[in-house]
Amino acid sequence: MNVKGQGNIGVNEIINEKAGLIVHPNPCKDKLTVNGYQLAVNTIEVTDLLGQKQNILVERLTTNDLRLMTNNLPSGIYFIKATDINGNVSVGKFVKE
Questions:
Q1: Three-state secondary structure along 22-73?
Q2: Residue 13 has what pLDDT?
Q3: Whole-prediction pTM value?
């Protein structure tokens, strides 16, 4: 997994090159964009550090792009699990401010 950032300002995006998952902005406040790149996301799951699933509103922007409404999440670190129609899985993480 490659992590791109801007010095010590914060992480811009997380890229999982194997499955092609891009998550931005990171850290986020109210909204988070998930780009499947080469993964046409069918389902998405957000969990906290304890593995508890989080209920969030997801809006499909394109076949590969989703917007997650993170305004109801408490500040913390979260994991994203995206699955395509063929069962391919990609994971990422983000920080909610």
A1: EEECCCECCEEEEECCCCCEEEEEEEECCCCECCCEEEECCCCEEEEECCCC
A2: 46
A3: 0.78
